[in-house]
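Regression test case RT-17, inverse folding.

Input:
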């Protein structure tokens, strides 16, 4: 399995990410990207906590964030996917494990790719913060193939904490 680390057990609270972690400098960079991404939304009032659930360095990381959501008191926990692909946030209501997060990412990305390749509007697709170009669709298609064929079959399926699995 890809996910296991000699020194750490996942999830890892972000404040406890240390140089002993595999891909340490890349993970710190991805953590900073995840913070900047979620904090870029007007409805994100304050980040309370974050934990690393999947660590493949600059390729892909999954974090779980607890925030003060100014738009919805019920959506305070969000998965954040960052890496060598467009960032995405997902609520915890639909995805309870790291594998489910990647499945949702993949499905939403495939919808976006299909619309771009068909010269259709991406207005009703997930709002990736990238231009809807054929080049971007091809890049994302390669990343999704890597996620589905190489990453998902080989990672540990890490679940949400028990109090969040019941949502």
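Golden output:
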């Amino acid at each position: 399995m890809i996910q296991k680390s000699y020194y750490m057990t996942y999830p890892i609270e972000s404040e406890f990410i240390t140089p002993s972690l595999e891909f340490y400098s890349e993970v710190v960079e991805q953590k900073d990207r995840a913070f900047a991404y979620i904090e870029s939304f007007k409805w994100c009032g304050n980040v309370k906590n974050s934990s690393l659930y999947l660590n493949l360095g600059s390729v892909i990381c999954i974090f779980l964030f607890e925030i003060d959501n100014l738009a919805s008191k019920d959506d305070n926990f969000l998965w954040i996917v960052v890496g060598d692909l467009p960032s995405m946030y997902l609520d915890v209501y639909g995805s309870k494990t790291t594998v489910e997060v990647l499945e949702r990412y993949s499905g939403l990305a495939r919808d976006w790719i299909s619309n771009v390749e068909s010269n259709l509007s991406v207005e009703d697709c997930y709002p990736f913060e990238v231009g809807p170009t054929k080049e971007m669709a091809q890049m994302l298609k390669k990343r999704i193939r890597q996620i589905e064929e190489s990453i998902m079959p080989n990672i540990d399926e890490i679940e949400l904490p028990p109090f969040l699995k019941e949502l």
